[in-house]
């Protein structure tokens, strides 16, 4: 629904703003208004690649000027036409309104809903603003200015009932009409920009949670992590937005669609907030009940009203939401099935150990990075590869990139390294972890940091084997000053922050702590032996890296079984296959050069 809001908000806001042209020129065709709105929308979406950081520096002044203008115009109209409209703040009048209007009065709430929609778009992506800024802005600026603006329009309509269809522009004094029109158009662009940015943010988070096909995500700001740009989604939003604007051609039906989307978003947000209050904040059940009752009382009232508008344009956000829901569900289903296949078909360690140090093949110079979604075990792609080719690289690293359901993973905790099998096998596992707000390093830093952490692991592993627990290292995952200095001086390209994250990975292979009765000579000779072993392995790894790095990726094709239901065949064989075809390849995401990429294909049926 929020994605649908990102389509409807620009259409509604820009078309409403440009409608002021026709008020000043009544004989102008509606086609001209639509054409102007489409031109503004194309310009708005074309600016997105510059990022909010570049185009947003005018947002705050424009929004502030806009609210001050509509508030000032409202005060002017109240003073000029009829100040008695302020009595409408009494709840008695809404009771009389419903008693007099009956069902028509109730269904009119769907239109009344539009008086508050749009204000939430100003802060749609809350990651850009602190909580205090939102609270102060809504309390001291947005809310009072909206009350004054609509009260002023009511006062104007008391004397000019024939202008009810375009009361806002009619109520503007002639001397400031065009300046207000320009500010209104600029404010519509601001609100549209906010919802577009929020759509990008939601797509990014859904992508990180495996609920959306892989798309290119560009971070447009070095200061603010939440400011992103997704080219594919941007152009899809533009096409859909222009289609809605040109298709409906009037504000009424777009308004019905817009109101439906916003009400459902508010309703779902309240239900999710209940879960947060219960499970995260652990609020008392009485507070949760009061909040839920008061919120749902208002929102369900408006929701029941917009249901009458479904056939008058309200179906649009429902269709958009359903389309995105199908895409997200099918993609998530296919992704989960692929992961389950890899989990069930992974190779046991006994099979690897039975092959011997050479894995039963020729070990050629170089490092093979085998990408897999498994954080444990040997993936089926590896056995599929070595049973069809007679050679494997001297060093094999299973690389697993995981997106965790957390905001961000600190850089010092990003890589986890572990050895698989004996040392002479030279097989490792590296798990790279990212939060849903983290940007995967698409440049050479990823490979560089991977090898830095691999070398750090070998150095740390050797140090733990060559020193006593009371001297160089604490068994409770804490470094001593001497061990930290050793690591820093031994490798200037790595930092001490990378050490703690590999400690837990090697706990299972650390030998038992040496007895305190050992002599210093024993410790010294053991340390010298481990240092020599460490130097030999680091030199071996460096030589293999110089010989070449090959990225081995699996290309698993998912197919529905022949006895599957027809809807499952459509979802898997057509929709999921189409999404896999148009989405970004893993090789592009990991920035793997084509000359060092090796795809291993396999098919499985679900």
UniProtKB/TrEMBL annotation:
Potassium transporter. One of its GO terms (cellular component) is plasma membrane. Residues 1-352 form the K+ potassium transporter integral membrane domain. Signal peptide: none annotated. This is Potassium transporter. The chain crosses the membrane at residues 32-51, 57-79, 136-156, 176-203, 224-246, 258-279, 286-308, 314-331, 351-371, 391-409. It is found in: Cell membrane; Membrane. GO terms for molecular function: potassium ion transmembrane transporter activity. It is a multi-pass membrane protein. It holds the Pfam family K_trans. Its main location: membrane.
């Amino acid at each position: 629904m929020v994605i649908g809001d990102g389509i409807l908000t620009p259409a509604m806001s820009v078309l409403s703003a440009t409608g002021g042209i026709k008020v000043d020129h009544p004989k102008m065709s509606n086609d001209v208004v639509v054409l102007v709105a489409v031109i503004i929308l194309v310009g708005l979406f074309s600016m997105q690649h510059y990022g909010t950081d570049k185009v947003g520096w005018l947002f705050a002044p424009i929004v502030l000027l806009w609210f001050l203008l509509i508030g000032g115009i409202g005060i002017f109209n109240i003073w000029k036409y009829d100040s008695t409209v302020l009595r409408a703040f009494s709840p008695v009048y809404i009771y009389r309104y419903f008693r007099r209007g009956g069902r028509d009065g109730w269904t009119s709430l769907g239109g009344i809903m539009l008086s508050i929609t749009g204000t939430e778009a100003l802060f749609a992506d809350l990651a850009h603003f602190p909580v205090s800024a939102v609270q102060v802005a809504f309390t001291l600026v947005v809310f009072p200015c909206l009350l004054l603006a609509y009260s002023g329009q009511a006062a104007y309509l008391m004397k000019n009932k024939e202008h009810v269809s375009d009361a806002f522009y009619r109520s503007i004094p002639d001397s400031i009409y065009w300046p207000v029109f320009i500010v209104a158009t600029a404010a519509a662009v601001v609100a549209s920009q906010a919802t577009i940015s929020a759509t990008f943010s939601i797509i990014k988070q859904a992508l990180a949670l495996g609920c959306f096909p892989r798309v290119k995500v560009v971070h447009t700001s070095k200061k603010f992590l939440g400011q992103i740009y997704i080219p594919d989604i941007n152009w899809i939003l533009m096409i859909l937005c222009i289609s809605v604007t040109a298709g409906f051609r009037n504000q009424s039906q777009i308004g019905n669609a817009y109101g439906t989307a916003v009400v459902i978003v508010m309703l779902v947000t309240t239900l999710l907030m209940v879960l947060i209050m219960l499970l995260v904040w652990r609020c008392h059940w009485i507070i949760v009940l009061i909040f839920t009752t008061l919120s749902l009382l208002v929102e369900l009232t408006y929701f029941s009203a917009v249901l009458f508008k479904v056939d008058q344009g309200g179906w649009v956000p429902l269709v958009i939401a359903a389309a995105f829901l199908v895409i997200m569900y099918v993609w998530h289903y296919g992704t989960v099935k692929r992961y389950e296949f890899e989990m069930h078909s992974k190779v046991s360690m006994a099979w690897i150990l039975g092959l011997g140090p050479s894995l039963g093949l020729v070990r050629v110079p170089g490092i093979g990075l085998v990408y897999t979604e498994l954080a444990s075990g040997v993936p089926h792609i590896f056995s599929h590869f070595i049973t069809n080719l007679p050679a494997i690289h001297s060093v094999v690293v299973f690389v697993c990139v995981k997106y965790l359901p957390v905001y961000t993973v600190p850089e010092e905790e990003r890589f986890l390294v572990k050895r698989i099998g004996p040392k002479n096998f030279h097989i490792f596992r590296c798990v790279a972890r990212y939060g849903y707000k983290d940007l995967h390093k698409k440049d050479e830093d990823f490979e560089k940091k991977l090898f830095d952490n691999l070398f750090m692991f070998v150095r740390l592993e050797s140090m733990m084997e060559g020193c006593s627990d009371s001297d160089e290292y604490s068994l409770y995952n804490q470094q001593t000053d001497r061990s930290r200095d050793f690591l820093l001086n031994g490798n200037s390209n790595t930092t001490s922050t990378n050490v703690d994250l590999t400690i837990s990975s090697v706990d299972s292979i650390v030998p038992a702590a040496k007895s305190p009765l050992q002599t210093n000579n024993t410790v010294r000779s053991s340390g010298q032996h481990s240092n020599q072993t460490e130097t030999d392995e680091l030199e071996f790894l460096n030589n293999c890296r110089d010989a070449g790095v090959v990225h081995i990726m699996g290309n698993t094709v998912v197919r529905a079984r022949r006895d599957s239901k027809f809807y499952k065949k459509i979802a898997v064989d057509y929709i999921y296959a189409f999404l896999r075809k148009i989405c970004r390849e893993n090789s592009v995401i990991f920035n793997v050069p084509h000359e060092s990429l090796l795809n291993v294909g396999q098919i499985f049926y679900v």
